[in-house]
Amino acid sequence: MKKFLTLLLAVLMVLTLAGCGGKEEPAPAPEEEVVDLTGKPLRILQFVSQTLGSLSCEDLVYEGIQKFCAETGSTVDTFELNYDDTHTASSLAELCSSGKYDVVVTGYWSIEEYVEQAAQDFPNIKFMVFDCTIDFDSYPEIKQNVSSYLCKQNTLAFAAGALGALITESDMELANPDKTIGFVGGGMITAIDDFLIGYIQGAHYIDPEVKVLYSYVGNWEDSGKAHDLAHDQYVNGADVSFGVCAPASFGVCQAAYEDKRYAFGVDTDHSGQLAISHPEQAEYTVSSAVKQFGYAIYDGLKSIYDGTIVWGSNNSFDFDSGYLEMIETDVFNKLIKEGKPELYAAYEEVVADLLAGKIEVGTAVGATTEYVEAEKAKADPANN
Predict the structure, then answer these.
(1) Which end of the chain, N or C, is more open, meaning fewer C-beta atoms within 10 Å of its C-beta?
(2) Alpha carbon distance 252, 256 (integer Å)
């Protein structure tokens, strides 16, 4: 009997120990080793929201990356979403998990939440994003591998608005007596409203009586609709229309040619591009508002290579950074700089004040809906 009890007790102890062992928490996974990229050729992925070759900011970014690669022996692959963001999350995760890349470069307002998630899932990959901000307060863990680059488009648009107002009040050949300019935006989003607010304020800095007609395409590809919207503005008295709808902006340039008015492009030098493909249209595209993200990303990649980059930052560039530019094209020089030196002098004074920080420009970024709508309502001084 004693032997039986002893044996039973031993079995119970073994079962108890086995049960306790089954409840033990697994050992924590070792933290991933932080990779130092200083002085090393980088394996770069440019994750393109739109399409390369569409003459958007992403083409400028690609040029900046190519320059960096040529100088450092780095490499770049590209992946294009072709405006279809339904596969953004899965495509980005698949590419990041491939182990092929050290740095992902991507951008635009629609990418923020996807980068915030991917940066958490892949802490050893560095993310450089342009034309949007990252919520580092909500996701402090990604301060180690994300940096964003934002250009203050409202100040750039202020310069465009001032130039447009000077044109509509001038005796330039195609300017009519009406004090009216136009604006064709892509989508009704914060970035476009930021452009519009700056444009209106720049025009009214020259003359509070200038009227700004504005409309939205609703996307970034429909150049035909952009053309029709600009045409309507020209018919209603606008001397110049500012196309802020990515590649669709070329429709504004076409309408300017057909209606014998003036146009401003965006993102790349539209006049320079048209001089190759449609030289007859180039003569009516006076300037283009360009956020030089190619320069900003190139400088950012160099800072990774040099070991000087500061991660976890939303870098916001003002007019004095050199990353914002109203392109002074051949057409600009002929019509404005040489053709109307007094107009050019007045415009240069505005630019100088922007560079010196003497002008405070309103912004839609971080603003309330009430503020944005009130600023847009000022587009028509007759109603205020």
Answers:
(1) N
(2) 6
